[in-house]
Write a structure and sequence with these properties.
The complex is a heterodimer of chains A (254) and B (224).
Chain A lengths: L1 H14 L5 E7 L3 H15 L2 E7 L1 H9 L6 E3 L3 H9 L9 E5 L2 E6 L20 E4 L5 H12 L3 H4 L3 E4 L2 H9 L5 E5 H6 L3 E6 L9 E6 L6 H13 L1 H9 L12
Parallel strand pairs in A: 1-2, 1-3, 6-7, 6-8
Antiparallel strand pairs in A: 3-10, 4-10, 5-8, 5-9
Helix pairs in contact in A: 2-10, 3-4
Chain B lengths: L10 H34 L5 H13 L2 H12 L15 H27 L2 H8 L4 H12 L1 H17 L2 H6 L10 H10 L3 H29 L2
Helix pairs in contact in B: 1-4, 1-7, 2-4, 4-7, 5-6, 7-10, 9-10
The chains are: A alpha/beta (254), B mainly alpha (224).
Chain lengths: 254, 224
């Protein structure tokens, strides 16, 4: 009986991809916010959102190979730049929809009192979890901050590079790392970590989430409507804020 | 964040479970005939290029799945060499294709070992008695190697059910369309829905039990 129902769902899913769908290739970190926004967009426009959720680099690779995407919503400006250079992005539609900031985290039960980047060099911090500063944007940004604060040389040997931000959080959650630097949106998800302090605004680090319609979009109107909706709809903006994204223009904006 | 709903299955979860099962079974079914035929050729014959074919078949075991996925994506993409022939990328069919490629070596290995273990004497005897090569294959080679072929198919199915790296590149992680149990779990873990990921893991474990028990049944039935 149950299997029969699932089979029906499966068939419905196969039929669901009709023309009024907007195929949104979005960074994983946007998953929860976009799932909450999707019904609002559908109610407002009648267009249904179909997501492909993965790392921005994987999505950019798929789009460059001709994946049937209408909108790219990236967590990494460099990936959007790459696609734009390749002529795949409708540049006129490109907008920085939300922003994020980095925060320093400690375990929920930690007694460490950290208030500044300089505190991360204290001897009690034996392991500092960062997304890999050689390849993952969050880690690249964190390293930039630590270098600007002149503490990178002291902490470098204690840095535990991880595959992504989620793994850096897991290191702090489990107590294997005494502190970590992650996005505010990720830190708010976990009950097992607490935010020690937010990293200050920096002229060098700008963490933006650009969205744009793609030039080969099968549904260019829907794509443009969505990018505009994400930018301007009060409900959508409130949902982004609820999940920890910064929705106002940043002090160091373009 | 909504931890209350993390322990419930959604319609998209149901789709992912059915898609994973259907694609894995389809992948093994599609692999079976060419896999067994190739295994027989590898076990019984010497031919030019044999070692190249052997290596090609083993590649999905050697390469990281994501690299196999990238090769498949290059091959099947709309602007790739096979893209004009078949339109599968980023559809559910891509899930089955990626699973079929990733699990093919297990079928070939299992069947080849079985053919080698059985030896070619029974086949030669049958041929001497006047049986045609096809008849020899279907009434001698296949029955006496059935256990090894079944074992290989079970391993192949297990590999397909858990496949992640190749699937996520060629099919994407599109909830309700191409998301599988594995890619849904990956998304859950990255977005902090650990409990939902564990729920799906429990379902995967249940599927593994069902698969292994079915395999045991098939093997028992295969005993003479």
């Amino acid at each position: 009986m149950k299997i029969g129902m699932l089979a029906v769902l499966f068939l419905l899913g196969a039929l669901a991809a009709h023309a009024a769908d907007v195929a949104v290739y979005a960074a994983v970190s946007l998953t929860d916010a976009l799932k909450a926004i999707a019904p609002k967009f559908e109610a407002a426009t009648g267009d249904k959102l179909v997501f492909n959720l993965d790392g921005s680099n994987v999505l950019a690779l798929q789009i460059s190979k001709g994946a049937p995407a209408d909108v790219f919503f990236s967590a990494d400006e460099a990936q959007m730049d790459k696609l734009q250079k390749a002529g795949l992005v409708d540049a006129a539609t490109r907008k920085d929809v939300v922003f994020n900031r980095l925060v320093a985290i400690v375990g929920a039960n930690s007694t460490l009192q950290l208030t500044s980047l300089a505190d991360l060099a204290r001897p009690e911090i034996k392991h500092l979890a960062l997304a890999d500063p050689r390849s993952v944007p969050a880690g690249v940004y964190a390293k930039q901050y630590l270098q600007d604060a002149k503490v990178w040389d002291q902490v470098e040997a204690r840095v535990v590079p991880t595959q992504n931000v989620r793994a850096a959080m897991a290191g702090v959650e489990s107590g294997n790392a005494d502190a970590g630097i992650v996005y505010q949106t990720d830190a708010l998800i976990s009950k097992k970590v607490k935010i020690a302090f937010a990293l200050p605004e920096s002229s060098k680090v700008r963490i933006a989430y650009p969205a744009a319609a793609l030039t080969h979009a099968a549904n260019p109107d829907g794509a443009k409507k969505l990018v505009h909706f994400l930018q301007t709809d009060p409900d959508a903006r409130a949902i982004f804020a609820k999940y920890g994204f910064i929705v106002g223009p940043p002090a160091n904006g373009k | 964040m909504d931890s209350s709903s993390d322990l419930q299955l959604t319609a998209n979860d149901g789709h992912a479970i059915v898609l994973t099962l259907v694609s894995a079974l389809l992948a093994v079914l599609v692999d079976l005939a060419p896999g067994v035929a190739l295994a027989w050729l590898l076990a019984r014959k010497t031919w030019p290029g044999k070692s190249i074919v052997e290596t090609l078949v083993a590649l999905p075991l050697v390469l990281p799945p994501v690299a196999t996925g990238l090769l498949l994506l290059d091959l099947l993409a709309h602007n790739g060499p096979l893209g004009g022939v078949v339109d599968v990328v980023f559809t559910w069919k891509a899930v089955a294709v990626a699973m079929a490629v990733m699990s093919f070596p297990f079928i070939v290995r299992g069947a080849r070992l079985a053919f080698e273990a059985a030896g070619d004497r029974p086949e030669q005897v049958a041929a001497t008695l006047g049986a045609s090569p096809l008849r020899v294959f279907f009434s001698i080679s296949l029955p006496i190697s059935w256990r090894g072929i079944t074992a290989g198919a079970v391993m192949a199915c297990a590999r397909a059910l858990g496949e992640f790296g190749a699937v996520v590149l060629v099919a994407g992680n599109i909830p309700g369309v191409t998301a599988t149990i594995s890619t849904t779990m990956y998304n859950d873990i990255l977005t902090g829905h650990d409990e939902h990921a564990l729920l799906l893991a429990a379902i995967s474990i249940a599927l593994a039990f069902a698969l292994i028990l079915t395999g045991e049944q098939l093997l028992r039935r295969a005993l003479p």
